[in-house]
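Follow-up to my post from last week.
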Amino acid sequence: MIEEKLSLTDLANHFWSVQAAAYIREKDVEITSLDGYGDVIGEAESWIDSTLDRGLVSPNRTRPDRTILVYPTARMFISILGNEYILRRFANAVSKYAAVVLEHEDDSKIALLATTPGNLGDKGWQLDYHKARAAGGLVVGNRKFEWRLFFTDYVSAAQNFHDAKWKLVNQPLREGWVYLQKPDVARLMEEAIRTRISRSGLKSARDIPSVKDLPRNLREAAERISKKVKKRISEFQSYDAEQAGAGESAYPGCIKQILDKLSKGIGVSHNERLALVFFLSNLGKDVEEILQAFSKSPDFDAERSRYYVEHAMGLRGGGTKYKPFGCPKLKTFGICNPIDNWCKNGKIFQRTIRGPLDFYRARSWVLARKKEEEKQPG
Ligand code: SF4
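User reply:
Got it. Predicted complex:
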């Protein structure tokens, strides 16, 4: 067992930790009556602002006694607002910040945080650097690995990573231990912190009052944040996804599945064809682009398909341009394929998904923002 004490500055640096929460409990600070804590409320509000605008939080590191209170205050606002979209963005922002701090942290403190139950999961991680280092670490090529994490914790933390580099088979593994370098440990901890905060849900903060029951300073801050969130949601609703051309990565599972079948030369049903044509034509695709999607179908007949697509697009017959099928109809046809959390929950940012276009518009907006954020320094 590693004996290590965390100072107040450490606790403020790792404000997401159970150690920081225990400190606040010990001091008996009641977050819902933060009278005289205007700076804490202001900073919590600005964390949420920058979470929404840039996907980052930038704690003030000069006042650890106040900073340590900002995290639970921001978390309380998010719970009061009851918006999972902010919770997920906040979880991303906090975990990114945590990783930067961890990468420069003392080894013994990293080990303490990682092995403490509740910080990265219900149980503490089996993470070790003492023994690994005492044995000279593990050298592979010109790389030296001085940390080791038991493979079960590794697999659980890395399960959402898509890069092949993180696959267990590509890691140095000895007797159940995955050998790592410090930046990798920080990256894995980042992911575990993100998951823990996202999964903690909106109801986990204790004794959440309604906005009207809050003291005036907290109520006004909650109302300001709520306005900003509403503005953000209306931004994505009016977002011109078609013009931005986010492409197939923003399609929902139902449409992806039809395209996938077509690309593999698997036949699709009449309703699947209609669902795809209505969706693509409402995205602004032209006849040729839509025909291209059908061209690998085993029974593709160019002339018949063109007639059929033009008809569905209102270019023939009575000139009726059909709207895409909504989710209820697609579910009845057995076409719904809810591979994404939005579809599993039937909601995007608290609003019911009416159909694949809702999904496409919102996902395109999220992808575009992500790109913007990646371009921003820091
Ligand atoms: S929930 Fe709607 S958009 Fe999502 S996969 Fe099902 S039908 Fe498609």
